[in-house]
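Closing statement on the MV4 sub-project.
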Amino acid sequence: MFKKVLIANRGEIALRVIRACKDLGIQTVAVHSEVDKDSMHVKLADQSICIGPGPAIESYLNIPNIISAATISGCDAIHPGYGFLSENTYFADVCESCGLKFIGPSKESIQKMGDKIEARKLMIKSGINVVPGTTEPISLDDPELNKIAEKIGYPIIIKAAMGGGGRGMRTVPSRESLQTAVSTAKTEAKAAFGDDKVYLEKLIEAPRHIEFQIAADKDGNTCYFPERDCSIQRRHQKLVEESPSPFVDSTLRKKMGKQAVKAAKAVKYCTVGTIEFLVDAKSNFYFLEMNTRIQVEHPITEIVSGVDLVKLQIRLAAGEELKLDSDKIEICGHAIECRINAEDPDKDFMPSPGRITGLIMPGGPGVRVDTHIYEGYLIPSFYDSLIMKLIAYGYNRKEAISRMERALSEFKVTGIKTTVPLHQKIQKNDYFRKGDFQTDFILKHIYGNV
Ligand code: MV4
């Protein structure tokens, strides 16, 4: 096992990783930017090192400074958390060549799943359902372009090969707008990802977004966990996640879980990761993409499965064998996560950084709070606006929702604006309560309804 781990991240996930290290008896080194010197992750780690100014590009994305910090402090591994350098193949490579274990997948796995066209090809080859569409980048000069699109069938969605998470997408209702849409999509992809490769997929209307946590060891032993339903999103930012999905029965779960394991094996995956699927109204499911990191929403899976995923991730990175069997992981109750952001719902969700002048934390039975905020803490404007993951769980979905409503009403914070009122609307919405929601839920039932 590792002796000392550097956490190349900040906020709640840095705390989550520090706590997993403590549970494993591993020493921790926090890195922080100048504006984060009073952050909770700095306080909780055994040691801390400043790696640069506020802007992430000069600190949390500063590879030479992070590697130097790890080397000077005598670390043997680096945990990247999520975001920042977590899916950066170059960083994973530099870590390994400096003798620091990157707690995550191999650079090859990251690379293969990072290019969505390559990932689609590999998934098809491995017998996994993908959305009908192209397996090569499309070209505007291709005389066959219209025919290709016609064969997939409208409506179509154009996606950037190097995109993901909803960035760089464009829907095309019919053939009249195909040429212009492809041309715009290419320009945008080039600007956003430095690569103008785009591909076509059939548009799945009002799908559910269902994902499977998987875990694998270096020998290829792989298991899947109960699914997470992440359909409730706003502008491709997840707002609420739950496990299990109210839509998925045990037959569908098993079919999808088995494909998720197959997908992981296809890239020789050997850590924790997530396979995302789109599911249509008839329960057809399609591979969407793979997230090669620990995700924000991992706690709901921890609660219903009883497995500490971050500890598992660290153990697998240290070369331990996976001793879990998908069929033996039981779903214990129901868990829901609300992502609470420092944003002003009355100002189109503009970030609302500032000092927290007063704070009352929710708690009690069936409530887990993953947060780095405290009274007096100054939320910097440089980073994302997630301030708390409020997780409620219970014997069943109904109990989890009641507890979420209790926790949301107990939580009081002054000095900043938060998305708590939005979450209260979601929890009391009848469609949400019935489990009747797809990815258009917020547009259809919350904004149409306020
Ligand atoms: C789609 C789709 C419909 N059809 N692909 C958005 C996030 C990115 N990972 C892929 N996304 C979508 N891809 C096809 N072929 C609809 C979405 C989508 C979506 C997916 C999951 C959750 C919320 C969403 C909101 C809008 C669109």
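Residues 131, 157, 165-166, 201-204, 207, 209, 233, 236, 278, 288-289, 439 surround MV4 (CB under 6 Å). With this model delivered, the sub-project is considered complete and its resources will be redirected to Aim 3.
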